[in-house]
């Protein structure tokens, strides 16, 4: 029997792995962290994120007049999750209650003590499906980190790197785990392949050339390897066709190539329970990155509510499938056309105020924590620099001075039917006729009026209603929207200590999982729908639970 080399081996150096390692080293435990990528990728996918955090009844909310509570947040969570599986949703239900409690009590202070700071404007994401007890956030809860994803990573990476200097942490990069080491039914380590060294920059797809093998023995194994977001074959294999319609033919990737889902199958083969594998969270507002880092690199538009949304045939999407309201319902309607893309039509006035792009690299002012730069870029006339660059270089954007030229440009990049100018003009004219009054029967304009009752939206996020064909607000802009792959909502089933479960309902000795590989907790804490700002928080909450449990044991 090989000798134990550490108290825990953490598989994956993303956010959940860093959080687990942080908690273990706080307790004086020795940790070996293995990752198939190089040190430049420390922090994983979280580094590329916008840094949104779901918080409940925060000081930032209260300053903006938002009345939130744990009870309201739990109502929203459960209405969105739609838990309906007796066995597979047993632990996710408990994780949901525990996570909402965390988000409404100690989460903000826990992060604040580590040095994390929040911007003053709270965003209103996933505004919902139209019913109080259904999907969506009743109030704004999307808190943007000052420093975006890199800052969320930093506040955990810094103490972990300090622990590395003290000898409590050993990183083994370019080590790919291929197998769990088992003894007497317990996980006691990992073994796999050593990949050839590389100094590639963060996110760039790396070689899988094997140069050796390894085995690590430890008191516990914590798996934090993420989901299946770049493995399009696995996404299609698990795609919920009956619920959302046929899998898209064209997918573009919102995560790097190393997000391949390998550890899900490895853990399942060792006896772990893998649940809710058909639950996913992909975005309908994906655009090709004109300056890509990884293969099929995509960016998500985080839209305000004003763009006119048309399907591939040129028909307006039915309520409440408006920008930023109900991701999965919109996905279903788009795919029901038999095509895998849709269109935004908007004006320069709308793009200037309402378009944000996901990704830390697409928000350099906030990512760099440069207050002067942020005020200048956000308040200046014109679209933010990264957004403006996409209008000039992005293959999904069409910018024209009039509608005939706009529709012609849309048809030039359509992957399906050619749009009829007369039909598009009728749709837009009907919508434009509704903006002369402060009230309307148009559900989207009603939603915009509601949004502008919230000060944060009125000041920074939602354009004043105007006619799309008014030249004073031009030029006209169309965006071809693609399906962007992103998050895995199912995963390894875990109890509230992040300990992996077996299919028979017993705990898997020595094996823990956190982050996306565990469905952000329990094997699917989000159920069918996410409320946004909950992915980083899920990594933090489940990684913390794993670290605390292993340190305690």
Automatic annotation (TrEMBL):
GO molecular function, one term: steroid dehydrogenase activity, acting on the CH-CH group of donors
Keyword Flavoprotein among UniProt keywords: yes
Keywords, alphabetical: Flavoprotein, Oxidoreductase
SUPFAM superfamilies, per database record: FAD/NAD(P)-binding domain
Residues passing through the membrane, by range: none
Domain FAD-dependent oxidoreductase 2 FAD-binding: 7-536
Cross-referenced InterPro entries: FAD-dep_OxRdtase_2_FAD-bd, FAD/NAD-bd_sf, KsdD_DH, Succ_DH/fumarate_Rdtase_cat_sf
Name used for this protein in its record: FAD-dependent oxidoreductase 2 FAD-binding domain-containing protein
